[in-house]
């Protein structure tokens, strides 16, 4: 393909109309939603960049697979197709399906985490952190410092600071550490990849201190793509071989299939070869998720995941996807909108701390920016910052997040470049009036996972 052209490796067979409602109606909708975009009706949204999770467009092949669903309670043929597919791509012996990623976490984590333990990660995703805490543990993040500087280029901003991680293990004693979780790509730091070299080092650390190393594998294929495109040695390796190598260094994975497996629902626990752990997971799955050959999914869903896993590791698909997101990021950056740079795998993360320096973290600058973007273009992004982080459970103080991001998350195979151009233009349009955007305060603040249902209002 000629350089500079980014043509999707698919054509569109079915369309879903979207509609930009008038500005006056957007204003009313936002007020009614308590200035929280989670509370909008999706019909009030023109371009929905809330998440890339479960919002993907399935292929004709996946839809055809849905018709081949074997809805047997036990031993569905779709389970075996899924298992064979996972064995083929990841080289892992065992799988247990779950209803989504957090279902995998709720089954696996209590088996590995005891009351008072620490769990170490580059950066925990919020449900991952919640399941560590529900199991009685404390989640600690060890991302490299380079990730915190959004302007500075680093090819693998998702990497662990291995020295700091080891220092912590020595300080607390290895018996106090339950496991290490490698989040690929690192969602909370901006969809940033983790290098193979870093995965290997973390794995060695795990071996040295006898700690299980678990992959939070939601965006495994995007991570492999970055390794292929940023490390010369891997340039000519296939995505599949890179994935195999990545997962050869870990013991198990939890996966939200709603991302790189390109489906609308589903999750997987993968176990490399630990029979004892597998047996425990199987037993634990029954009361929480379902019998281990369906784990909360219909046979047809497992079939769609099996087919989606194969499609999601195709190089032309991944290249188009990552290039498309990069196009949006580069357009914003060249127009003076600060972003986490380089652009990550599933989203563009706008640095709201930098763009709206007049709004302190207690007044949620990224949420205020998200609301303004909705008013401007009917676009729904999501705050990844202090609103999401919440309060210190002991003191009740608002914690300051290391980032105040507006995440513009791109569903797979859903929007065209012209949609994303509209998003870029809308954000650029509000750039000159950002100093007029007001901070927010709560009118209702729930105790847990408050960002989903909180109500806010602008501070006059
Ligand atoms: N791990 C990571 C890294 C995630 O990004 C998510 C979900 C999960 C685990 C949980 O998976 O939603 O299937 O239960 N992330 C979504 C997001 C919700 O918008 O980033 P799930």
Reconstruct the topology from this structure.
Elements: H1 23-32, E1 47-48, H2 60-66, H3 77-90, E2 94-98, H4 101-112, E3 118-121, H5 126-134, E4 138-141, H6 162-172, E5 177-183, H7 196-209, E6 213-216, H8 220-230, H9 239-248, E7 252-256, E8 267-271, H10 275-288, H11 299-312, H12 315-334, E9 347-351, H13 352-355, H14 365-377, E10 379-380, E11 382-384, H15 386-389, E12 405-409, H16 417-431, E13 440-444, E14 455-458
Parallel strand pairs: 1-10, 3-4, 3-5, 5-6, 6-7
Antiparallel strand pairs: 2-8, 7-8, 9-12, 11-12, 13-14
Helix pairs in contact: 1-14, 2-11, 3-11, 4-5, 4-10, 8-9, 12-16, 14-16
Bound molecules: ligand F0G.
Ligand F0G is lined by residues 51, 53, 100-102, 125, 127-128, 183, 187, 216, 218, 256, 258, 267.
What order do the helices and strands follow?
Answer: HEHHEHEHEHEHEHHEEHHHEHHEEHEHEE
CATH homology superfamily of the largest domain: Type I PLP-dependent aspartate aminotransferase-like (Major domain)
Question: Might you state the CATH topology name of the largest domain?
Answer: Aspartate Aminotransferase, domain 2
| Helical residue percent band | 25-40%
> Radius of gyration in whole Å, from Cα?
21 Å
Q: Termini distance?
A: 53 Å
Number of continuous helical runs: 16
Small molecules (ligands, ions, cofactors) in the structure: ligand F0G
Q: Order of strands across the biggest sheet?
A: 2-8-7-6-5-3-4
Beta content: 5-15%
Total DSSP E strands: 14
């Amino acid at each position: 393909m000629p350089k500079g052209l980014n043509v999707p490796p698919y054509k569109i067979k079915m369309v879903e109309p979207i509609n930009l409602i008038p500005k006056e109606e957007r204003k009313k909708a936002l007020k009614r939603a308590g200035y929280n975009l989670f509370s909008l009706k999706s019909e009030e949204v023109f371009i929905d960049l809330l998440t890339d999770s479960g919002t993907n467009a399935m292929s004709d092949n996946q839809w055809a697979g849905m018709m081949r669903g074997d809805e047997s309670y036990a031993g569905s043929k779709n389970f075996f197709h899924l298992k064979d597919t996972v064995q083929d791509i990841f080289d892992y012996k065992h799988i247990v399906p779950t209803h989504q990623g957090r279902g995998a976490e709720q089954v696996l984590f209590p088996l590995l985490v005891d009351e008072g333990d620490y769990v170490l990660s580059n950066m925990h995703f919020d449900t991952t952190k919640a399941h560590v805490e529900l199991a009685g543990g404390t989640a600690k993040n060890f991302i490299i410092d380079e990730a915190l500087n959004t302007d500075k280029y680093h090819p693998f901003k998702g990497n662990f600071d291995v020295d700091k991680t080891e220092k912590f293990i020595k300080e607390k004693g290895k018996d106090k550490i339950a496991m290490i979780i490698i989040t690929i790509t690192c969602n909370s730091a901006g969809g940033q990849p983790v290098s193979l070299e870093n995965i290997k080092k973390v794995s060695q650390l795990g071996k040295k201190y006898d700690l299980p190393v678990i992959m939070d594998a939601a965006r495994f294929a995007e991570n492999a793509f970055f390794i292929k495109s940023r490390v010369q040695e891997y340039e000519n390796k296939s995505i599949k071989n890179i994935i195999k190598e990545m997962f050869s260094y870990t013991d198990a994975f939890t996966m939200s299939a709603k991302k790189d497996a390109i489906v609308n629902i589903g999750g997987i626990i993968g176990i490399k070869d630990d029979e004892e752990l597998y047996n425990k997971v199987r037993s634990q799955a029954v009361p929480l998720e379902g019998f281990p050959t369906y784990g909360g999914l219909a046979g047809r869903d497992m079939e769609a995941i099996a087919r989606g896993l194969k499609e999601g590791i195709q190089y032309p698909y991944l290249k188009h996807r990552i290039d498309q997101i990069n196009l949006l990021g580069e357009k914003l950056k060249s127009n003076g909108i600060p972003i986490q740079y380089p652009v990550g795998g599933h989203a563009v993360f706008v640095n709201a701390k930098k763009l709206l320096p007049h709004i302190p973290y207690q007044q949620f600058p990224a949420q205020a920016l998200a609301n303004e973007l909705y008013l401007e273009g009917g676009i729904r992004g999501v705050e990844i910052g202090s609103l999401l982080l919440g309060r210190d459970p002991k003191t009740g103080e608002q914690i300051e997040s290391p980032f105040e991001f507006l995440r513009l998350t791109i569903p797979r195979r859903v929007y065209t470049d012209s949609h994303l151009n509209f998003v870029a233009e809308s954000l650029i349009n509000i750039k000159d009036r950002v100093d007029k955007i007001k901070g927010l305060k709560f009118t209702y603040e729930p105790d847990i996972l408050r960002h989903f249902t909180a109500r806010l209002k602008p501070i006059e």
